[in-house]
Known about the structure:
The complex is a heterodimer of chains A (116) and B (113).
Chain A: E1 3-7, E2 10-14, E3 19-26, E4 32-38, E5 44-50, E6 56-58, E7 64-68, E8 73-78, E9 87-94, E10 104-106, E11 110-115
Parallel strand pairs in A: 2-11
Antiparallel strand pairs in A: 1-3, 3-8, 4-5, 4-9, 6-7, 7-8, 9-10, 9-11
Chain B: E1 5-7, E2 10-13, E3 19-24, E4 31-38, E5 42-50, E6 53-57, E7 64-68, E8 74-78, E9 87-94, E10 103-104, E11 108-112
Parallel strand pairs in B: 2-11
Antiparallel strand pairs in B: 1-3, 3-8, 4-5, 4-9, 5-6, 7-8, 9-10, 9-11
Amino acid sequence: AQSVTQLGSHVSVSEGALVLLRCNYSSSVPPYLFWYVQYPNQGLQLLLKYTSAATLVKGINGFEAEFKKSETSFHLTKPSAHMSDAAEYFCAVSDRRGGSARQLTFGSGTQLTVLP
Amino acid sequence: KAGVTQTPRYLIKTRGQQVTLSCSPISGHRSVSWYQQTPGQGLQFLFEYFSETQRNKGNFPGRFSGRQFSNSRSEMNVSTLELGDSALYLCASSTAGGNTEAFFGQGTRLTVV
Lengths: 116, 113
């Protein structure tokens, strides 16, 4: 079984400061990993995904994440926070097994607040 | 190209009733997955359909069911609604395989009173 743990349900940063959202995964097979963002009353938008091509993954809006197998982590970072980054962020894992269905297992989410 | 369309956006139902939610995937996407999002349980996988066949199912009671049509549009049905079924129901479409991006709709907000 696979699972995702997001440390910190709420994170506050000042505008211009580094954003770091933590994600640790558990999977019995090499995983696919994703970060999604959700704005109020909206669906989920993909920020970036790891599919084994490169351990450092760059996404949209200046976000990036690094896959660290030894630490089973996939933390999301952004060098400089913007007010528009305030949203809820979800880390998700998908099974890599052949013929796998599209089943994402999500973390509990981290609400990011950006302070002026 | 058009995104994933979910209808209706908002729904209010009475306990004991049944409800049907609709999802139109992105053109060319044959996989449609459904998720339930609640403040207490977070995002939970309901089921996935591919080419009109249910490929995988989450841990939900039999009151939750779904189907997919030949044009890949999908519906999910919840019978005998309970207060705890109040949630945001999200539909996601993708091409195939675990490494492809799932595109999410804006969701249907179901309130059971």
